[in-house]
Request: fold
Amino acid sequence: MQVCQPKVSAAQAITGGVIEPLPEFLTNAELEALIGAKSTRKQIEWLMESGWKFELNAARKPIVGRLYARCKLAGLRLQTTTADQSAWSLDLSKVN
Reply:
């Protein structure tokens, strides 16, 4: 009887087969690489000038979402929409 074993990627081999999920936000090193500056002030300036959405954490450091960064770097236009509240209404008039 043959046992089917999944192929192990190089990353899995290096980490002992464990794949850790990526953090939700870009790391400090990733922000530095993206922006080209270590200074928090310069990072914030670049993000604002480049039209990136970000938040500041309690330490006043910029926080950029990983999914947002991937979409932005891929050239996708991100839109925020809200559900149309007038599309339907709950009619309880016939409920006893």
